[in-house]
Design a protein that fits this description.
It is an enzyme of class 3 (hydrolase). This protein is of the alpha/beta class. It is 48% helix and 12% strand. α6 runs parallel beside α7 and α8 runs parallel beside α9.
């Protein structure tokens, strides 16, 4: 949240300077709109991209040395998750699944398969609604806690969180301060939910791929399953090892 405070403080100082200056040399009203508009633009972008760390500190990649990368999946579990798990097992890879609470309720057996496969799970809120950016702190907190409590039935106390759509705001920052979750971002966004061409999705990943990368995928479509197999083959060829994000970042995934 430090960047947000610095940005807000800077533009407030600019406006204060303009007001003081106008005492001696009156300014047109539109001059005051310039810093205000810039503040809105920067804040909007900072809220939309979790990697900026604008409202909350996020972990977006691991060490560039070594040969480890992390593949992460959002929005599951779904029926496609089973195919993802089969591929990960086939190529001896581990991944991290940021799960939606209501999806866990729909597919408890698949969720258990993720855990039994040695993969890591994280919190992706309970409902994953686009309007969450307008929720109060208490409402966001309830979304996070409800999923935590659901997962705790499997004996796991979640430490990792990924904001829906990568969107953050001051209310989410306050909620996360209370829960203590580590926020996990990414440095490679596949756009597999909006791009239909599998080759294009794969190219977006491979052209950015390097040790320490955290890749964002979604275990929600056959298209992504197809891309995943090609990616896992490439990782073998390049001697890159897919590990869970907690191993890549050397942080705990669960409460002890």
């Amino acid at each position: 949240m430090l960047i947000h405070k610095i940005n807000t403080g800077f533009f407030l100082a600019v406006i204060a300077f303009l007001v003081a200056y106008s005492v001696f040399d009156p300014l047109s009203w539109w001059v005051y709109l310039i810093p205000l508009a810039l503040w809105f633009i920067i804040t909007g972008l900072g809220s939309a991209f979790v990697q900026w760390g604008y409202h909350v500190k996020s972990l977006n990649r691991g060490e560039k040395s070594g040969n480890k990368i992390a593949i992460t999946f959002d929005d599951g579990p779904t029926s496609e998750t089973i195919k993802v798990l089969e591929l990960l097992s086939k190529y001896d890879a581990k991944a991290t699944f940021f799960c939606i609470g209501k999806q866990i309720e729909k597919h408890p057996d698949i969720f258990k398969q993720i855990i039994d496969g040695g993969h890591i799970v994280g919190n992706h809120t309970f409902n994953h609604l686009p309007e969450m950016g307008f929720y109060s702190t208490d409402k966001i907190l309830a979304e996070i806690v409800k999923t935590d409590e659901l997962v705790s039935r499997n004996g796991l106390q979640l430490k990792l969180f990924r904001p829906p759509y990568g969107v953050t705001n001051p209310n989410m920052a306050k909620a996360l301060k209370r829960t203590g979750h580590a926020v996990i971002g990414w440095n490679i966004r596949s756009l597999d939910t909006v791009i239909n061409d599998e080759n294009h999705i794969l190219k977006r990943i491979t052209t950015r791929l390097a040790p320490g990368s955290i890749i964002l995928l979604h275990d929600t479509s056959q298209k992504t399953v197809n891309v995943l197999e090609q990616l896992l083959i490439l990782l073998k060829e390049q001697n890159l090892k897919a590990v869970a994000v907690n191993e890549l970042l050397n942080i705990p995934a669960y409460e002890e």
